[in-house]
Sequence to fold (188 residues):
Amino acid sequence: MKKWMWVSIFVILIFLIFCQQQKEEEPATLEKPQEKEKISSIAKEVNNKIQSAISSLAEGKVDEGANLLLDVILLTRPGGSWPGNFENSILEAKEQFQGGNIQQGVELISDALKLMIPAAEASKEKVKEESKDVEQEQKKDEPARIAPIAEIMRDKILAAREQFKGGNTDKGVILILESLLLFGPRSN
Fold:
């Protein structure tokens, strides 16, 4: 009889421990859908702003399109997690674009891009760009189709959206910054 009593107590203890563990796991599982919903809403907002930016730029509203793209950049990370003075450069660039100072906005974007791309990668890209320039000079005799800047910009923005969808936000941010640099020549 004592044996059955101990077995029943043991079963009850296991049952209580199992129920306790389940109660502890429930809040964690409730938080995950909320996080996913938050991420999903941010992803939708990013996608909507990218679409609106493309539409605005197609209509010639540079300041509106640029501000939407800069908003997209700021949505990809929480404030304070950007390298160096990146966030301030983006906010100042937004102000410049809103004020119609496109050249100053482009210069601020160039500064922000330098913060996103490590110096080693930047020098590799310059070498690649210089080699492309040499190839283009060699092909002057051949008729070449030069893509319009608007098409290049649109392609970079769409590529950034694909990078965001793939989870590579840094590359997406770099592509958006590069697209915004196409608004004007920058001083080195």
In short: The chain is about 80% helix and 0% strand. Residues 49 and 73 are 10 Å apart (CA to CA). The two ends are 90 Å apart (CA to CA). The mean pLDDT is 74.
